[in-house]
């Protein structure tokens, strides 16, 4: 059987089918997207409509719009033979058994003998879909259940049937993890598998408890987000995001499919939800649901649904002392225990206790029905719903015995295996062995077994947990970690992954370490939500308020020297950005020899939003990367178009909405790597260091490698800025910042274009930055960002 999956046939261009096709295109695969034929002359009418809906989806399904060219449209009547070229055929048509069976019969007739065939169903037994097919077909058939939107949600549930070849299952697991960038779990062929089975129960009971006990929408969303380790969408905003019709439809379908479930009545949607669906209050897709976005007094606000009138009213900010009190406890388990203990006296704590504990107990009662693995159940909720911890990790966090005691107080039913674990003296689902490996209790083995780890994952957290000596140096903001094989990691773990004095200090320590023969090179990486959001604005503003501009100039020079140290180090330096990589975060990457970016990396030089220009070498790097190469290749080429692109990147604070868009903006070059899974990023970056280290030679710092376009081009840029202001597209102060940016990008007041050193441009950057900082309007922008988190246009 061929190992590589290069071409995919997606059958069904509905919401999920088209989104799966898009994500396959994101991964660089060739895709056939087919659907039933239209009734008129245009047989592709139906598939084209689904494709167009996908193109308009927000958030975007494609990592960049040009990837649409990797998807070829067709219909089942005229183009079905194209399935024969696919290495993987995935069905995503209507959730009805007979159409799926009929389609699979056709697939079997044309598919390659070694093609993997799967269904994205969530409600129909896979064994029923494969019924009547040959042994060869059934051997390579399984469920591949994506969560919507597939580009962003990490979870991929793999559901083998009794006939699925274990090699096929393992091949799909590797493909899902390494090519599609997913976190895979194995689920049993039961209705809605793991994620939606538990998610539907939790979602419906959370809403019912709120409505039946007089909790407001605002109250519930204020206490069911980050406070309990869940995303900011909490409860009701999540329903608006998913679509109320989808959430209710999944729960209603599940209710019909699980007659033996002792808690199936909890799956019934509350009557208020049915009324909302009747009134088309479905959430974001219809413009109104539990919340409605509107503008009032010149500001965008979110009104909330009045559950009596079904009209929207201004949202209130509820006073909930519990939130502030509980958040003093940074550890999630400690926080949850505090909240549960408060439930007798605090109504908000009571809501959390009376919805969280039933969800944990329900998850316990579903094992081993939906899965044999506690770890897979946890991962399904962590990866599918972005929970900080799944039900069994949460149970461990609050304490195994404590959890049992609290659930018994609520008369919640627990399965027999809980008592059996207690009798054996087992008091946690997870633990670590002497080597630091994570173990999970296995019911079949009646013992702890290693948690499955993707062999492609290198984790800073695991390395540090397994060997304390792996930490070479550390402070509150950053650490140096030995990755093995002579590769050193510079890990930024400051608040919000911002560059502060501690990060700079540890960066210089990294450069010092690189002089040691022990190291082959350096990886700059972390495992925070975002790689680096730029400079610590609070530190900057403190210096401004003290009038310490000479000291600020010194600190900017230090940062420049650090990043130039990375650029000209004697050993290779590889940066591994992911998530928000803004301002100084981009500058770190631009000074590395190689970038290994996660697919979901959002890079941009956004300093104009706080009234300054990039001064850690970002402006210099845009000139070096976007202006200099074409002028070196064609010295007579007009520099203006290239300077214009560099200027617009910074002046318009353009941010790539993926690593692929970031490449188009010039933040990544052709040698840089993009990996679909952030989990694999560190392993790939480490290999890049090792590959580069053999025969590595650093660039020459004295070389005049930047083309400075000179005063004439600078004047042309300023005229363009004036036109923007005349058209009211830019404020007067935007123009001030833009003029300083043009001054630096063009090399100051040089009478003619010429080649200069990087240090020359850095000097201009530094002076422009400090000059702008002294302006009250820049200070207003910084204050606004610190206070509101949003840029101010003044």
Automatic annotation (TrEMBL):
Reactions accelerated catalytically: a (3S)-3-hydroxyacyl-CoA + NAD(+) = a 3-oxoacyl-CoA + NADH + H(+)
Start and end residues of each 3-hydroxyacyl-CoA dehydrogenase NAD binding domain: 7-190
Top-rank lineage group of the source organism: Bacteria
Chain ranges of the 3-hydroxyacyl-CoA dehydrogenase C-terminal domain: 193-292
Keywords: Fatty acid metabolism, Lipid degradation, Lipid metabolism, NAD, Oxidoreductase
CDD domains: crotonase-like (cd06558)
Pathway: Lipid metabolism; fatty acid beta-oxidation
One of the GO biological process terms: fatty acid beta-oxidation
Single GO MF annotation: NAD+ binding
Record carries keyword Transcription regulation: no
Family membership: Belongs to the 3-hydroxyacyl-CoA dehydrogenase family.
This protein's name: 3-hydroxyacyl-CoA dehydrogenase/enoyl-CoA hydratase family protein
Taxonomic lineage of the native organism: Bacteria, Bacillati, Actinomycetota, Rubrobacteria, Rubrobacterales
């Amino acid at each position: 059987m061929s190992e590589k999956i290069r071409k995919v046939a997606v059958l069904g261009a509905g919401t999920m089918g088209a989104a799966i096709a898009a994500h396959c295109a994101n991964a660089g695969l060739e895709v056939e997207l087919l659907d039933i034929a239209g009734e008129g002359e245009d047989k592709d009418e139906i598939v084209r409509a689904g494709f167009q809906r996908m193109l308009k989806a927000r958030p975007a399904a494609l990592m960049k719009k040009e990837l649409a060219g990797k998807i070829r449209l067709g219909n089942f009547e005229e183009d079905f033979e194209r399935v024969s070229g696919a290495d993987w055929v995935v069905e995503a048509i209507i959730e009805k058994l007979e159409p799926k069976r009929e389609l699979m019969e056709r697939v079997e007739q044309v598919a390659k003998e070694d093609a993997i065939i799967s269904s994205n169903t969530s409600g129909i037994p896979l064994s029923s879909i494969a019924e009547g097919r040959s042994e060869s077909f059934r051997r390579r058939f399984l469920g591949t259940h994506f969560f919507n939107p597939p580009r962003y949600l990490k979870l991929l549930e793999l559901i083998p049937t009794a006939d699925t070849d274990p090699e096929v299952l393992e091949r799909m697991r590797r493909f899902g993890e390494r090519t599609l960038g997913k976190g895979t779990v194995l689920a049993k062929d039961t209705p809605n598998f793991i994620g939606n089975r538990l998610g539907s129960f939790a979602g419906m009971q959370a809403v019912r408890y709120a409505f039946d006990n007089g909790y407001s929408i605002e109250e519930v969303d204020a206490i069911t987000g980050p406070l309990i380790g869940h995303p900011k969408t909490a409860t009701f905003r999540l329903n608006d995001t998913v679509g109320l019709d989808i959430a209710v439809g999944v729960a209603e379908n599940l209710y019909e499919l699980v007659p033996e479930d002792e808690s199936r009545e909890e799956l019934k949607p509350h009557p208020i939800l049915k009324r909302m669906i009747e009134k088309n209050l479905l959430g974001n897709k219809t413009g109104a649901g539990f919340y409605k976005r509107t503008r009032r007094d010149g500001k965008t606000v979110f009104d909330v649904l009045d559950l009596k009138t079904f009209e929207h009213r201004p949202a209130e900010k509820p006073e909930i002392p519990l939130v502030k009190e509980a958040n003093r406890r940074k550890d999630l388990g400690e926080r949850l225990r505090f909240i549960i203990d408060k439930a007798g006296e605090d109504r908000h704590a009571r809501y959390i206790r009376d919805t969280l504990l039933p969800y944990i107990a329900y998850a316990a009662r579903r094992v081993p029905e939906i899965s044999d693995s506690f770890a897979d159940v946890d991962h399904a909720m962590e990866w599918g719903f972005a929970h900080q911890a799944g039900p069994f990790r949460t149970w461990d966090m609050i304490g195994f015995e404590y959890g049992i005691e609290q659930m018994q107080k609520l008369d919640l039913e627990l399965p027999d295996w809980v008592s059996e674990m207690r009798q054996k003296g087992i008091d946690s689902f997870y633990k670590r062995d002497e080597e630091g490996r994570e173990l999970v209790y296995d019911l079949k083995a009646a013992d702890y077994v290693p948690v499955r780890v993707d062999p492609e994952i290198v984790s800073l957290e695991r390395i540090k947990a397994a060997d304390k000596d792996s930490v070479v140096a550390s402070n509150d903001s950053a650490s140096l970690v030995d990755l093995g094989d002579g590769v050193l990691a510079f890990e930024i773990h400051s608040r919000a992954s911002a560059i502060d004095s501690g990060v700079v200090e540890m960066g210089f320590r990294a450069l010092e370490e690189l002089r040691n023969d022990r190291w082959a090179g350096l990886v700059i990486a972390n495992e925070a939500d975002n790689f680096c959001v730029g400079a610590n604005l609070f530190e900057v503003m403190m210096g401004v308020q003290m009038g310490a501009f000479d000291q600020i100039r010194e600190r900017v020079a230090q940062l420049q020297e650090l990043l130039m140290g990375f650029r000209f180090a004697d050993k290779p330096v590889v940066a591994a950005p992911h998530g928000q990589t803004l301002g100084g975060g981009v500058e770190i990457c631009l000074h590395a020899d190689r970038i290994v970016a996660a697919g979901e990396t959002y890079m941009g030089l956004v300093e104009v939003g706080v009234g300054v220009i990039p001064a850690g070498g970002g402006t210099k790097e845009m000139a070096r990367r976007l202006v200099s190469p074409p002028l070196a290749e064609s010295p007579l080429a007009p520099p203006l178009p290239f300077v214009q692109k560099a200027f617009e990147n910074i002046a318009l604070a353009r941010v790539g909405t993926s690593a692929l868009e970031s490449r188009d903006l010039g933040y990544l070059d052709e040698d840089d790597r993009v990996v679909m899974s952030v989990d694999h990023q560190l392993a790939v970056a480490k290999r890049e260091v090792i590959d580069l280290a053999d025969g590595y030679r650093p660039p020459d710092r004295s070389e005049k490698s930047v083309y400075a376009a000179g005063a004439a081009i600078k004047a042309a840029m300023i005229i363009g800025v004036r036109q923007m202001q005349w058209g009211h597209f830019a404020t007067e102060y935007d123009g001030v910042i833009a003029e300083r940016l043009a001054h630096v990008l063009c090399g100051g007041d040089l009478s003619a274009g010429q080649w200069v050193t990087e240090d020359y441009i850095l000097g201009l950057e530094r002076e422009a930055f400090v000059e702008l900082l002294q302006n009250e309007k820049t200070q207003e922008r910084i204050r606004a960002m610190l206070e509101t988190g949003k840029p101010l246009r003044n």
